[in-house]
From TrEMBL:
Protein name per its UniProtKB record: amidase
Entry similarity comment: Belongs to the amidase family.
Taxonomic lineage from the root: Eukaryota, Fungi, Dikarya, Ascomycota, Pezizomycotina
Sequence positions that bind substrate: M185, S211, V232, G233, G234, S235
Residues of the signal peptide: none
Pfam families attached to this UniProt entry: Amidase
Keywords from the UniProt entry: Hydrolase
Source species: Didymosphaeria variabile
Active site: K136, S211, S235
Reactions the enzyme catalyzes: a monocarboxylic acid amide + H2O = a monocarboxylate + NH4(+)
Domain Amidase as annotated: residue spans: 81-529
InterPro entries: Amidase_CS, Amidase_dom, AS_sf
GO molecular function: amidase activity
EC number: 3.5.1.4
Enzyme class per UniProt: hydrolase
Amino acid sequence: MAPKAKPERPWKEVAEEAQVYRDSTISTLHPPAPKIPTELPKNVLSIPQKLLHPQVVSITDLPPEQLLSLLSTGQLSALHVTTAYLQRAAVAQGLVNCLTELLATQALERAKELDAYFQEHQEPIGPLHGLPISVKEHVGFEGLRCTTGYISHWDNVPKEDAHILQVLRKAGAVFHCRTTIPQTMMHLETDSNLYGVTNNPYNSNLSAGGSSGGEGALLALHGSCLGIGSDVGGSIRSPAANCGVYGIKPTAFRIPTDGWGYIMAGADTVESVLGPMSVSLSGLKLFMKTVIDSQPWLTEPALLPFPWRSFVLPKDRPLRIGVLWDDRIVRPHPPITRALKTVADRLQEQGIEIVDFKPYLHEEAWAIIASLYFTDGGEADGEAINSSGEPWRPLSEWIITQNACVKKLDVGEVTYWLEEREAYRKEYALHWNELGVDAVLCPVGPGVAPKHNTAKYWWYTSQWNLLDYPSVAFPVTKVDKQIDKWVGDPKSLSEHDTYNRELWDPEEFDGLPVSLQLIGRRFEDEKILAILEHITEQINLPFEQFP
C-alpha cells in the first residue's frame, strides 16, 4: 500500500479560512446585523424578535405564499424582502451555526433587477418573483466553493449553476444564503470540521438533524421561508421534523439534480433527491409545482416528463389512511406514539378510515439499502476525509467503518443487491395493495430531536428511500414531559430498541417539536400533499403553534 500523501495544508488552516470567509460575507451587510449576546439560552427561538427591527420581523414571519402575494402586487419590494431575510439569516447563524455563506451582494443585485422589472412591466417576472430561497451547500453555484462537507473539497468550484438553481432563478427566486451540511453528507446530524456543529434552535444540546440540518435550523428561526434540501436516507425529513418545519422527499427523477456535489460512490443504486423545506405546507407545493411546471426534463433527460397533476379526493368512499405504529424493530418514544394516536383518532372523528398498517420486513429493507449506500466499501469517502488529515466525525465513523453492511462489492454482488431491491419493491407494492390505503402515516424517527451524535436509527426514513416513495414530514405537537411517559415495561424488540429507549430524556426533550410523515406510492407526490392539506384543514394541524 502506497504511503499516505501529506496534505498540502493543515486541515485546521482550511477550516479557519472557511469560517473567516463565511463571517466576512455576513460583515458586508448594511446596516450591520445585530450583535448576538455572548450568553445564550438553550432555546433561542425568541431572540431574533428581540434583536431585529419590527419591520424585519413582520416580513420574515410571513409564510412564502403570503410573501409572494405581496411581492406580486407590488405591496412589498424584492429589495425590502431580501434585505430583511439577509438580516434574519445572519442572526440565525449567530444563534445556531447554520450558514456556510451569506449571498448578500448577489441577492441584493438580483432583488434590484426584479424591482426594476416590476416597475417597468407592472407584473412579476415569474411565480417566485422576489422570494428569497436558501440553498444547501452541496448544490452547486457557479464560481462558489462546493465542499460537500470535506476539507479536501474546499477548492472545488463549479463552472455553472446547478439545474435546480437555473429553474428557480428563471421563476424569480432570490438566493440569499447557503446552509451547513455534515462530513460525508451521510448523517442525521449536521457537523463538519469545516464549520462545526449546527444546533437545534429549540435546544442547543440537541441535533438540528441532517444532512439538511442547516436548512432546518434556519427555517425554524425564519432566516428563510423556503429552502432546498436533499434526501438519500432521511436528510430532508429528519431536520424538518427536528426543527418543527415542513419537508418533502419527492419521488426520484421529478426534481432536477444536475450540478450538485455528491461524493458517494455508486449513488445511483439508491436514488438521491433534491426537495423543498419550508415554514409552511403551501411552500412545499409552491416549490414542487413551479419546478415541474418549468418542464425541466427538456434539458435534464433523466427526469420523467409528466406535469404537475391535481389530485381529487375520493367522493364515493372515505379516505383510507394506514398507520404504521412501529416497525417491529424500534418502538418510538412516547410523544411520537401520542401524536400518531391523536391524529388517527381525530381523523376517524372526521369520517376518515384508519387502518393498522403492519410493517413488512423493514429489517431486510435496511440490509438492502445499507449495502447499496457504499458499494465501494466507503473508499471514496474515506479518501476524501483522509487526504486532508481531518479527523473522522463520530457519525461518519458509525455509518461507514462501524456499519457491517458496508463492503466493497464486485459486479455480481452489486447485481445481487439490486435484484433484492427490486424484489423487495414488488413485495411491498403487493403488501400495500392488500391493505388498500391511500397513504401511510408513520414516525419520522424513533424519537424527537436527539442529543448530538446519537442519531443512529434511520430506518423510519430510509425505508421510503429504498422504495422510492414520496414522503412529507410535518409538525403535529410538542413534547410534554408531564404526559409523555412510557406505559408499562414491554420486552425490548431488538438491540436498536434498547438503545433508543435509553435515549429518552423527558426533561431535555420537553417542548420539542413532535412531527410525523405521510407516505405515498411512487409518483404520488401531488397526492400526499393534497391529502395532507385536507387532513390539516380537517383536524387543524398542527395542534400547537410553531414559530
